[in-house]
Amino acid sequence: MTAEPRRETWPLWEVFVRSSRGLSHVHAGSLHAPDAELAVRNARDLYTRRSEGVSIWVVPAAAITASDPDAKDAWFESPRGKDFRHATYYTASQAVPHL
Fold this sequence. Notes:
CATH architecture: Roll
Radius of gyration: 22 Å
Number of helices: 2
CATH topology: Ubiquitin-like (UB roll)
Structural class: alpha+beta
Mean pLDDT: 84
Order of helices and strands: EEHEH
Helix content: 10-25%
CATH superfamily: Phenylacetic acid degradation B
Largest sheet: 3 strands, antiparallel
Shape: elongated
Strand order of the largest sheet: 2-1-3
């Protein structure tokens, strides 16, 4: 019985692409690659096949810190008494026509 060769696992990269009509990068997906340079090249081939991208960012998935989806109410609920932070709190003035 022979032992199988040890397979090295490539790190996971998150891919963000900015389209030619977009102003910001949007998460396009994930891929595995041994380094950042190859991750960008693979992302180009995988996520911009139809020449829709003008910029690609790749970020090691291990470098991303995210909020807990189960704690969304605590994270994203507006604090009581601070409705002024939202534009819907204000009314448009009739004396200011350009608003």
